[in-house]
Design goal:
The complex is a heterodimer. Chain A is an all-alpha fold. Chain A is 82% helix and 0% strand. Chain A is built from 12 helices and no strands. Chain A is globular and about 65 Å long. Chain A starts with a helix and ends with a helix. Chain B is of the alpha+beta class. Chain B folds into 2 domains: 227 residues, Rossmann fold (3-Layer(aba) Sandwich); 116 residues, OB fold (Dihydrolipoamide Acetyltransferase, E2P), CATH 2.40.50. Chain B is 26% helix and 36% strand. Chain B contains 9 helices and 20 strands. In chain B, strands 6-7-8-3-9-10 form a 6-stranded mixed beta sheet, with helices on both faces. In chain B, strands 13-12-11-14-20 form a 5-stranded antiparallel beta sheet. In chain B, helix 2 packs across helix 3 and helix 2 runs parallel beside helix 4. Chain B starts with a strand and ends with a strand. Classes of the chains: A mainly alpha, B alpha+beta. At the A-B interface, helix 8 and helix 9 of A face strand 6 and helix 2 of B.
């Protein structure tokens, strides 16, 4: 092995240790009694269920609204496309608290648009819908970009031939484009879901209530101390990793 | 029947500048031309995948220029075959039939029949990713033919195949066409491919069809000579075999060549113009071929002259030096004898 590879190996070990050790530290510092308390706490269970529900629901909504946009961006050239692509990626660089503020002043119940939404029964402040809105906002770039790359990787001749064989645009999309981009779309959805599960900053601004699990972690940390926060975090971590592994395995099995 | 009239489209590097051509019902038209001539663009316009800025496309008398691809009833086979990788071979072939809402039983029957025709019945449960180049080509053809489209558009269908597989692919296409009588527009840059398959040839150069008709007439054009050289290319039937030689009938003229072929087989021959000797009288040379011909046209090529001669429908190009041309007093209408060795005639397909 040459010196360069040895050197790179050492650097790689440092970054891997940096990434892996916090997981180990968390597991090692869990107090089983507090873990038992957290598992049995109705507040914690409710917060966890709410987070899972909102993350899943926002991912489904993102799939419905983001996949068509991704297809258009991958397949067509038009004026202003660069601007739209930049807009899609913008949430990646905006601080989380700023996202909360922005959503509040755009869609909060005291705004014009928020008032209209309120009339439809969708209140975007301290509500399930506010949580979904935050999750969608932060997850959108991940899902749309992945789906766009997936569609772009499907050769246009595969779609063209399907048209010539008698399929209309909708049939071509459903039978050719979508299945061939499915892996990328699925990966994007997985990333958007994981991103939603990890969000807290924007929620503290726009949806402190009903409490999602990350907000509860902060509250327990501030109120009861690190031990309780660690117990709750361990449960959250276990669920996130389990879902992530199951989906990744399913994806690999499919291909 | 496909009629293309004055098609215009400009995509920068590739353009069509008033392309017109015609493929009769059941006719096999080969569009021959160099890369960048606009052949693929032409096929994409006919298929409906690109819209021309000017011109018309008529399919069986109906103007389909503004029809979407799915309303044209034209099967398109691109160079990469575009088999859908997530579907089995069966589903690929069945796709156009499903689009037309055939019953399950009818789809099964048609897929089975065309798969047998192309010898791919054993591949029906496989995915395209596991197939060889030749197998992929057969599947693409099966998918294109299973639903009896009004025409099949083939874009360099043998370009992705190994050289060894090309001639068997030509044979396959020829047999399929003689059996199923489909209308075909086949684009290629391969002269031997065109010579083997074409019932009619169109030569495309710089975004226009320079000439269409019989292969030899097409090859006689200045543009074809620029691209292909001045080679004489003939398609004919083997009428006699003897001691390592074959006699090929080309437009009623017998040409002797050193090659092996089965009696009755169609072969494509090539003869270079520098191998043709023009004589005033039939001399007793060792050349096995001597034809009585008439001069049609003379083209100056610097120190040499390209002489176009003909004997009935058979056209022949020969080089002579300027001084020989003067000595022979060559001019259109003059009768001569063209002589060439059997070994100079090469079988190219």
């Amino acid at each position: 092995m040459n010196r360069l590879v040895t050197f790179f190996g050492i650097l790689s070990f440092i970054i891997l240790f940096f990434l892996a050790y916090p997981f180990l530290a968390l597991v090692l510092s869990v107090n089983l009694k507090l873990l038992d308390y957290a598992v049995k706490s109705p507040v914690a269970v409710k917060a966890l269920t709410l987070t899972l529900e909102a993350a899943t629901f926002s991912t489904i909504l993102l799939l419905l609204l983001g996949v068509p946009l991704a297809y258009i961006l991958a397949r067509y050239s038009f004026k202003g496309k660069g601007l739209i692509e930049a807009l899609v990626d913008l949430p990646l660089v905006i601080p989380h608290a700023v996202v909360g503020i922005m959503l509040l002043i755009a869609f909060g119940p005291r705004t014009g648009l928020g008032g209209l939404l309120e009339d439809l029964g969708v209140v975007l402040e301290n509500s399930f819908w506010a949580i979904v809105a935050v999750f969608m906002f932060v997850g959108a770039p991940l899902l749309i970009d992945c789906a766009k790359d997936g569609f772009a990787s499907v050769s246009s001749s595969l779609e063209g031939v399907a048209r010539c064989m008698g399929a209309g645009p909708a049939r071509v999309f459903i039978t050719v484009s979508l299945p061939l981009a499915a892996r990328s779309i699925f990966t994007g959805a997985l990333l958007a879901w994981a991103r939603a599960m990890s969000e807290v900053g924007a929620l503290l601004i726009i949806a402190y209530y009903p409490k999602t699990v990350n907000v509860l972690v902060i509250e327990w940390f501030n109120t009861y101390g690190l031990g309780y926060a660690v117990a709750l975090t361990a449960i959250l971590l276990l669920i996130s990793i389990t879902v992530f592994v199951i989906l990744r395995t399913l994806l690999r099995w499919k291909h | 029947m496909i009629i293309v009239e004055n098609l215009h489209l400009d995509l920068g590097e590739f353009k069509l500048q008033g392309v017109s051509l015609e493929a009769g019902k059941g006719e096999y038209l080969v569009v021959l031309g160099p890369s960048g001539a606009g052949k693929t663009l032409l096929l994409e316009c006919i298929a409906g995948l690109r819209r021309p800025v000017r011109g018309r496309i008529l399919v069986d008398g109906v103007d389909v220029t503004n029809f979407p691809p799915e309303k044209r009833e034209l099967a398109y086979v691109p160079q990469d075959y575009a088999l859908w990788p997530h579907m089995t071979v069966y589903s690929n072939i069945a796709y156009p039939l499903r689009c037309r809402r055939f019953s399950k039983a009818e789809i099964k029957r048609r897929v089975k029949r065309i798969a047998e025709e192309l010898g791919i019945s054993h591949l029906l449960n496989r995915k395209p990713g596991t197939l060889s180049g030749g197998e992929k080509q057969r599947v693409a053809l099966a998918r294109a033919l299973a639903w009896n489209p009004k025409a099949v558009l083939l874009d360099e269908p043998t370009a992705a195949l190994d050289p060894a597989l090309k001639s068997s692919a030509w044979k396959l296409l020829k047999n399929l066409h003689s059996k199923l009588k489909f209308t075909a527009i086949h684009v290629t840059h391969n002269l031997a491919e065109a010579a083997t398959l074409a019932e009619k040839t169109a030569f495309m150069y710089g975004g226009v069809v320079v000439k269409q008709g019989k292969l030899n007439d097409v090859l006689a054009t200045h543009e074809a000579s620029m691209y292909l050289g001045d080679a004489n290319v003939y398609r004919g039937k083997v009428v006699q075999r003897r001691r390592g030689e074959i006699v090929v009938d080309v437009y009623g003229t017998k040409i002797v060549t050193i090659a092996d072929a089965i009696l009755g087989e169609e072969v494509v021959l090539m003869l270079r113009p520098e191998d043709v000797l023009l004589l005033e009288k039939p001399a007793s040379t060792s050349a096995r071929n001597t034809l009585k011909v008439i001069v049609e046209e003379l083209e100056s090529r610097g120190p040499i002259v390209l002489v176009h001669v003909r004997r009935g429908d058979l056209k022949l190009k020969a080089y002579v030096t300027k001084s020989s041309s003067e000595h022979l007093e060559l001019k259109p209408g003059k009768q001569l004898y063209a002589s060439f060795k059997a070994a100079a005639v090469k079988r190219i397909a």
